[in-house]
Predict the structure.
Amino acid sequence: MNRTQTAAAPSKATRYFLTTVGLACLVAIGLHFGQAGAAEPSVVIPAPATDEPAAGRHTETAVFAGGCFWGVQGVFQHVKGVTNAVSGYSGGKKETAEYETVSGGNTGHAESVQVTFDPQQVSYGKLLQVYFSVAHNPTELNFQGPDHGTQYRSALFPLDDAQRKVATAYIAQLEAAKVFPKPIVTHVEAYKGFFPAEGYHQNFLTLNPDYPYIAYNDLPKVADLKKVFPAQYSDKPVLVPNVVASK
C-alpha cells in the first residue's frame, strides 16, 4: 500500500471500511513475513557525544526528513520540550512545495517536519537521538517502508553551523559504533527553507489513529518513543493549531 495514493484525509465511512478490512489485510501481510507490528522496529542507540549548549535560549528550530511526514510529526509531537511540529517540504523551491508536485519525486523536496523546541528542556542532540532510533530507519535509501522516492529520503537540514556540527558528528559516531546492521544513508543537506504542507496533512496521526497506514506504520513509532525515551515522552501531543478532524 502506497500512502501517496490516498493522501487526503479519509471520511468516517472510509476510515471504518479501511479499519475493518484494510487493517486486517495489513496485519495478515505482516504475519506472513513474521512481523506482528510495524516493519521498522526501534533501535536503542547511544546519545550524542557532542551536543549544543543551551546557552540561555528557550526557542530553537530544526528540520528533519525521514519518510512520510505523518509519522515523523506524530513522534515529535509527543516529545517533552517540543512546542510545535509542522509537516511540510524542504530541499527544493517554494514554487514546487505542493503535495502532488512533490510526490513526483523530481522537486528536490523531502517530506519534512519543522520542530520548534525549548533547548532548556530537550536538546537538538536528544531530538537527533529520537530521530535516528524511533522516528524512522536511517539505513533505507530514498524510501521508508512502503513509500519510495527521493521525497521520502532520510535527511537533516541544519539551520546553522552548530546544528550541522552536531548532526555530522553524531552520524560519524553512530557509524563508528556500528549500531545499525547497514550503513546510515542520512544526508546532512543545505537548508533552503521550509514550506508547510497542506492542512489535511497536519496532525494526521492524532486525527486519524484508525487509518491503516497510521496504525501499521506510525503508531508503533509513538509506542517505541514511550518505551525507549520514557523521560522525554509526553502523553498529550503538541498539535498544530486550527486543524480540525475530517468528517
About this structure: The beta strands are 60-66, 82-90, 110-117, 143-144, 147-148, 154-156, 187-188, 194-196.
